[in-house]
Amino acid sequence: MRSRPRPAARATLGALLALALSLGLLVLAPPAGAAEVGTEEIRVPSGSGDDAVELDATLYLPDTDEPAPAVVLAHGFGGSKRSVADDARDLADRGYVVLTFSARGFGESTGSIGLNDPRYEIADLSTLLDLLAERDEVQLDADGDPRVGVAGASYGGALALLGAAYDERVDAIAPEITWSSLTTALFPDHTGEIDADTVAAVPPTTDEGVFKQLWAGLFFGIGSAAGGLLDAVGGGGAGAPATPAALPDELLARAAENPEAVEQLLTCGRFRADICAAYQSAAATGTLTPEIAAVLERSSPAGVLDRIDVPTLLVQGTQDSLFGLDQADANARGIAADGTPVKVVWFSGGHDAGSSDGQEGELREQLAGWFDFHLRGQGEDPGTGFEYPAPTGVGATLGRVQGGGRTVVADTYPGLDGAEPADLATVTIEGPPQPVATPAGGTPAALTTLPGLGALTAALGGTTAEIPGQFAAFDSAPLDAPVEVVGASTVDLVVSSRTGSATLFAKLYDVGPDGGTTLPGGLVAPISLTGLSADPAAPSRAQVTLPGIVHRFESGHTMRLVVSTTDQAYALPDEAAVYSVGLASVESANGAAAGETLLAVPQVEGATESATGSLRWWALLAAVLALGLLGWLAALWWGRRRRRQVSHVQPDGEDVPLRFEGVTKAYKDGFVAVRDLSFEVRRGQVLGLLGPNGAGKTTSLRMLMGLIKPTEGRISVFGHAAAPGAPVLSRLGSFVEGTGLQPHLSGRDNLTLYWAATGRPIEDAHMEEAIAVAGLGAALDRPVRRYSQGMRQRVAIAQAMLGLPDLLVLDEPTNGLDPPQIHAMREVLRNYAATGRTVIVSSHLLSEIEQTCSHVVVMAKGQKIVQGTVEEIVGSGGSVLVGLADEADTERAIAVLAGLPGVTAGRTDDGLVAELDGARRADVLQALVAAGIAVDQFSPRRRLEDAFLALVGES
User: Fold this and answer.
1) Family, per the entry (predicted)?
2) What letter would DSSP give residue 445?
């Protein structure tokens, strides 16, 4: 059961809240029968003394006369009982008594956040089980013992695990995307031997680890703000709109009597003091102390997994940089060690990515089926097997190869409770030892697809950014056959450091034949090494476990191991250092020589099923035949429709850098943002894209840049189709929808970092020309967070011009610029086009378009209204100012003009003006000359703004 983010219009609290929506909030569409479910609002007292709280709870009662099993649904971190309201109705409609509640410190419950402390939150769960045992609607196993299951995601998932360990009345659990050890999750260290045969095990943290500061900061920020904060931006589910709750009344009362408590409230919000202190220490030093470890392990199921003896369904996401597959792996091993039934399910999602509607429905059915069998004794036995999404890869020419929603089902989880371990394939990788540097303070740092970096990732086309000089890379040969990786791979490295220690990050990239790189899941393996040799000639050996992934490396692709010194998501050493990183040679019997080693990748065999489950063979055959017939008919129709949209390179591509041909962009809700848009831009032109808000300008530019795909039609860049990831897009420089600059870096560092992400030589950047465009002087070396909006805008435009792209696309480039800067920008763009390059400018400043652009496309309501030169747009229709060589000819000129159809003329303060109603300017001028009247001036009187308003009004 997974949550779906609400529409972007409601996510106005920024990226932090949007990211946090994935922290385990369970939101599902209400079932058809939800109206028959009764609800009862309850305030539940729990705890005693200073730790006494009131929990805000809701009881969902099914429409049945018989006692029924109960399910406690726990919400994710930052949510409240409203976050799981729809899930509760779904289960109640299936016949379960469902209890939802806001954990202490969240929603309208009182108290402070203990982070699933057994003394507080887990004790609260036992109080809720006492309540269920007293209800007549709940089936009992014995007096005071309800038949009950517990489910939840992330924060709620850990509560399910800990609750089953501490309260024997729990009968089945279904935790999702949660942790086993908070220490290993927040201070990971992927070095050392692994005492496990399971498919995704990584070494537990035994020493310092590397602090996952970005995720920890998100957790603390959400918890410090207010309980139920996420409900206000879409996590609340059914019911009245939620508002963030105030801080607990009892804490405010104490603060009034004790000034030190006021500081505690302002600093820690709803967190307990010991948790607040642990976070502050970790954030300040990045170091795992015994005090911090004690706090984290107290809230970790890892230490009590041997107490869990109830059937457990473990669901974990393959796209999760917070709680990776290794956390579910550790939970499975600990619970199954004593023979407890455990089923493991991986799905394509997690804290870093949502899941599809179909996938959410499948997970919902998995949970219901688990409880049906283990609480009711009904339905098919879900077993104790292993399910994972069919591995996907990246095609050489077709983009991402999708798994089609397929699932691979194995009888057992490899290596669990005596089961056979996963098969290991070996891939030879090679490369010489390489020096890598870590900068002082860890800045600039490499960027991966992790929370908080979405804007930059989008600006970089969805790729990661490795900093030159900060990483070593080792490649395999192009693969002769596809390699499917299911789990955590291992490799041996040799490292030396003059300081005796090193912090590194290992990643396994998929490199396509065209050089494009993909980091599966956006996942990295932090490495904390101590006691290293200082001699590069005699380095220390270290076994490294890479993150657990599910990915298919296609034939012809290369597997690239990258070891870097920095990563934006982690705390980094303050001191600058240089390390030597190389590959550890294996025994010669394995065929490896100096400079190469073997990468061990796990592979799991299983039966592949569609997301909808298996069908009888005859039903499947009938479906195949029917689909074949439909496909044949569709091919005939589609072939005719697409004949003009062939994917060849257009021969005039170099002369026509951009061409839109019948482009339409429609969304699932029926809204059409762009409709049948066709125009072309030729080399050397400066094209202005005009239109009111909602005209489709930005959507058109995003399709051009390959960020979104058109529904119909073709966009060609230099004759090539502009598809996501198309190599031809490297000839395009763009600035659309925000600067994407990193505020803690200087303007110069931002430009350098952006170019480094392209993988092209620094000499190709033409950095000095771009810096001249920015015109910031000494300010270029100050952090961007100190810049004005105009300064940020200038750096972003300079960033778009790096490499002097042949096609430059700018969306509202003059926002935030003062008049002298606008004038300078106008000259830059005109001069840039004069070199034979092409510029496209989308702007609402019509006067600037008129003075800057040579050509204009006017759009309204997603359609093109008119296209032409600025002179043609301004001069078509309207008024003409006529200047005569001899003022004595004025009356005669008026008489000549009055005799022309559709023309009226008269004197104005500006001079003689002819109003043209359908008449052509050329005909008017010819009539005056034929009458012997000397004309000194003959120019359009209206501005582009007049023409624009007239055209849009007509549309």
Assistant:
1) Belongs to the ABC transporter superfamily.
2) -
For residue 914, list its beta bridge partners: 880, 905
Strands (E), 682-727: 686-690, 712-717, 720-721
Single-letter code of the amino acid located at 658: L
What's the CATH superfamily of 876-954?
Elongation Factor G (Translational Gtpase), domain 3 (3.30.70.870)
Q: Does domain 423-607 have CATH number 3.30.420.40?
A: no
Domain 8-186+211-384 has CATH 3.40.30.10: no
Tokens of 494: 């040799």
Domain boundaries, the chain: 8-186+211-384, 423-607, 658-871, 876-954
Q: Is 317 exposed, middle or buried (0-12, 13-18, 19+ CB in 10 A)?
A: buried
pLDDT tens-digit profile of 442-486? 888 887 766 544 334 434 444 578 888 899 999 999 999 999 999
Q: What are phi and psi of 937, to 5 degrees?
A: -140, 135
**Whole-structure pTM value:** 0.62
Residues 604, 610, 613, 619, CA torsion sign: negative
- Dihedral angle of Cα 370, 375, 379, 383, to the nearest 10 degrees: 40
Residue 360, classed as helix, strand or coil, is: helix
**Mean pLDDT, to the nearest integer, of 225-242?**
39
Torsion of CA 12, 14, 16, 20, to 10 degrees: 20
Of 696, 702, 698, 707, nearest to 674 by C-alpha is 696
Question: Tens digit of pLDDT for each residue in 93-126?
Answer: 999 999 999 999 999 999 999 999 999 999 999 9
Report helix, strand or coil for 386.
strand
CA distance 325 to 330: 9
Of residues 405, 380, 401, the one with CA closest to residue 392? 401
**In which residue are the tokens 């041909």 written?**
661
Distance CA 441, CA 885 (A): 73
